[in-house]
Amino acid sequence: MNFILMAAMSLVPLFLGMSCKMLFKTKLTNAMVLFMFFMSVWQLDVSVLYSNDVIKTDSILFLFQLLRIGSIMLPPAFLYVGYISLKHLSKDEAKWMNLLINKYTLSAYVLWSVFIYIINWTDLGVLGLKSIQGIGNQVTVLYPIYGAWGSLFVNHIKLLVVSILLTLVASRKVTDKYVRNFLTLFSLTFLLTYMIGVLNLQAGTFIYSSQIAVMLFSIIIFFIFVHMSTRMIRDTSQILKRKEKEEQIEISTSGLIHEINNPLTVVKGYSDLLSRNEELDGSAKGMINHIGIAGDHMNSILTNYNHFIKSGKIQTEEADILDVLNESIALTSIRTKEKNVNIEFNSHKNIIVSIDRDKVRQVLINLINNSIDAMEKSARKVLKIDYYTKNNEIHILITDTGSGIHPDEWDHIFTPFHTTKKTGMGLGLSISQRIINSHGGYIEIVNSTAEGTELKVIMPLWSV
User: Fold this and answer.
1) Residue 146 · residue 153 · CB < 8 Å
2) How far apart are CA 33 and CA 80, in angstroms?
3) Which of 187, 292, 336, 357 could form a disulfide with 341 if both were Cys (CB 3.0 to 4.6 A apart)?
4) Transmembrane region positions (predicted)?
């Protein structure tokens, strides 16, 4: 009965890890799932020591040595979680951590763990199993008899606390608040579990320590996971609504554009033929010419609107928003110099986001160019750019000292073909808004007066 119960409990960490993977689509999640897998194997290894009433001792010894890969690989697996978390830190914050956690130390740790596992199969590691009695002599359980190098395994397991502490330190600087909170609580909870589970190394407390450790870890992680999931679902539902709206626009307008193009092609074709007819008088040719001009104008509108629709199709990747901002500023530097615009960019830290790098850069370039145009007649031409994270989102502020946007225009400025300029189709801001909407975010006017305009671009740190 004890064996069956513990074997079932050993799968709980793996199930929780897979559930976490379904919610968090990041490399950090994959690292945590790998750790949870080894933890399940570790617990399954412990459970076979309770199976002496259903499995032969020789078979138990084989299974025990085979499944010991779980406990042996726990320290490097947890360190791998810390290594991946460094990818979410700024370069300055991660610099000193990289000296301790890097691919070389991680590889060495894995090789050392493999060495310990190999020793486990020899008489230097485990000689055999012995029976011990629990409290009250009610439960008989097997316990390993260590060889001459058995202390290597014991010390290896104790080193797990180093991996936990390093990962805990790194987790506090992770940008994504959901990953940060989950990883921090995950580390603290497992540290408590480790402190109880390490009692497995003492035969006298063997019977109950592993059961208590698994129960504590499973229950606490379950509640942490539910809490994190609830908060994330609440926030991501808003993102999904924006994306759904964009998809509806694409579906409804793509078909309409196609249907209009068919008769438009006929109109343009016949107008071209009629314009070549020499029998028509000047008045008729003038009217046909107007038909051709109107057809070209309609074709231009459809082409541009089709471009607007396609702008919502994005391919996200992990990128540093600081790099994207620097690229956007560099690509508009010629205009800013020509127009004597002074850019004040508050470049302070690296923030990893999941975006379509090219299209977000296109948005930023468009907003910067609009600000430059707005400052054409300004005596003081200053463009301020800043960025920060809030509520698991990236906020980018673009502030200029231009002529401002009239309050009556605020509700229409992102509407397709609406423009306050003498030239242009009025699609720049609408395309920019559509691109950001496709990321699950939006562009808003924070403030606009005769002294200038402040725009904010808001996107989730990770795409859904």
Assistant:
1) yes
2) 11
3) 336
4) 6-24, 31-50, 62-83, 104-121, 141-170, 182-201, 207-226
Domain ranges, ordered by start, for the chain: 2-238, 249-310, 317-460
Structure tokens at 117: 């596992």
Nearest CA-CA partner of 9 in 158, 193, 195: 193
Beta-bridged to residue 208, according to DSSP, are none
Contact criterion met (CB below 8 Å) for 139 and 52: no
Question: 37-95 pLDDT, tens per residue?
Answer: 898 888 888 888 888 878 888 898 999 999 999 889 988 988 888 787 766 555 555 56
Please state, in angstroms and rounded to a whole number, the distance separating the CA atoms of residues 139 and 359.
Answer: 65
Give the other-Cβ count within 10 Å of 270's Cβ.
14
State the DSSP code for 343. E
Fold of 317-460: Heat Shock Protein 90 (3.30.565)
Could you report the per-residue pLDDT of 82-138, keeping only the tens digit for each?
A: 787 766 555 555 566 667 778 888 899 999 999 999 999 998 988 888 887 655 455
79 DSSP β-pair partners = none
pTM of the model: 0.53
In angstroms, the CA 452 to CA 443 distance is 17
C-alpha–C-alpha distance, residues 184 and 443, integer Å = 32
Look up residue 399 and give its amino acid: T
Which single residue is written with the structure tokens 């005769």?
450
Q: Which two tokens stand for residue 318?
A: 């992990």
Which tokens hold the place of 413?
């400025």
- Could you tell me the two tokens for 116? 């310990």
CB distance 275 to 223 below 8 Å: no
Q: 2-238: which CATH number, 1.10.10, 1.10.287, 2.40.128, 1.20.1070?
A: 1.20.1070
Fold match, 2-238 / 317-460 = no
Q: How far apart are the first and last CA of the chain?
A: 43
Question: Which of 25, 50, 16 shows the shortest CA–CA distance to 185?
Answer: 16
